[in-house]
Amino acid sequence: MSISAKDVMKLREATGAGMMDCKKALTEADGDFDRAVEILRKKGQQVSEKRADREANQGLILINISDDHSKAAAIEVNCETDFVARNDDFQASAQSFLDVAFEKEIGSIDELKQQEIDGLTIAKHLDEMVGKIGEKIKIGRVLFIESSGDLVKYIHPGNQLGVIVEFESSIDDADVAKDVAMQIAAMNPLAVTRDGVDTSIVEKELEIAKEQLLNEGKPAEIAEKASQGKLRRFYEERVLLEQKFVKDNGISVKEYLEQNDAPLVRSYHRLQLGEA
């Protein structure tokens, strides 16, 4: 099939691979973008996780945590421009929507939009904001979480990235809790532990690792064993408790928590603007 220069450029921007490599991968994949990315990885290409076709909406991520750290709500409210996202009225409206979700323990966009503020439903408030501001305004995500452990939040400056961390029990050291939340924000793990990683992802990583080793000329038996080593490195990069602690690469996140007599992480939610 014919591969357009536009498609080649799109793959190059998404992966950082060379133009000819991108064209060959797309040709081999019959134009399938995701399959072409996989082909590049199997050939040992260092590809970026950034997708060129992803449009990052503007807006805000906001989080509320109860005083006893047992409840949390988070919301993503989107607009078209950063200028609107910095507007005081837009921010106040987004906060009022979050307050309703928090107080009424709502984790559904549809349910939240049916709630009223000052006699108007939130859906109607959104319509009025669109009419006043002249941009598309929407609620991209809403979460409500309850925990028997301890919930901690982190909002990155600019409100485009937020994290809620659930610890297994009460965590007394606020600095340690914030460090772990910032780790999640910065390193974007797939899961807390290996068991939390989807088996399809593990199988795909093993397949890619084997293909890379075979393409390097390694015998099949050696490639099979060595791919397990690559999988271990994958876990160290993508599983939270096994990741190197960003403030001290000599220890893992789990070791950092243990050294500070802090409870382990049970779960987390990472909200990045435009990734709903």
TrEMBL record:
Residue segments, region Involved in Mg(2+) ion dislocation from EF-Tu: 81-84
Keyword Protein biosynthesis recorded: yes
Record keywords, A-Z: Cytoplasm, Elongation factor, Protein biosynthesis
Keyword Cytoplasm part of the UniProt annotation: yes
GO molecular function: translation elongation factor activity
Annotated ranges, domain Translation elongation factor EFTs/EF1B dimerisation: 72-275
Subcellular locations according to the entry: Cytoplasm
Pfam families recorded: EF_TS
SUPFAM superfamilies, alphabetized: Elongation factor Ts (EF-Ts), dimerisation domain, UBA-like
Protein family per UniProt: Belongs to the EF-Ts family.
Entries under HAMAP family matching the protein: EF_Ts
Annotated function: Associates with the EF-Tu.GDP complex and induces the exchange of GDP to GTP. It remains bound to the aminoacyl-tRNA.EF-Tu.GTP complex up to the GTP hydrolysis stage on the ribosome.
Protein name as it appears in the record: Elongation factor Ts
The organism of origin for this protein: Rhodohalobacter sulfatireducens
Highest classification ranks of the organism: Bacteria, Pseudomonadati, Balneolota, Balneolia, Balneolales
